[in-house]
Design a protein that fits this description.
With 69 residues, the chain is mostly helical. 49% of the residues lie in helices and 0% in strands. It has two helices and no strands.
Length: 69
């Protein structure tokens, strides 16, 4: 928890935030003017995490799954 808190404080300082409320919900689907901003942000997040996702779930679609056993 200490590491998470320190990293969060470092990130907030680098971005110029002083309180969590200053950025909480900033990419919320309800707060965007463009209806596709939220979906694009979620897509980018998925792409950035795709390697770890496929390591954890290597066979999401059984039609295209290649057995590695």
């Amino acid at each position: 928890m200490k590491t998470i808190l320190k990293d969060m404080e470092t990130w907030m300082e680098a971005k110029g935030y002083k309180k969590l409320d200053e950025f909480r919900g900033k990419l919320s689907n309800k707060k965007t003017n463009d209806p596709f901003v939220y979906k694009r942000a979620q897509y980018i997040d998925l792409l950035l995490k795709s390697e770890s996702i496929f390591k954890k779930f290597p066979c999401i679609d059984t039609d295209i799954c290649i057995e590695t056993r």
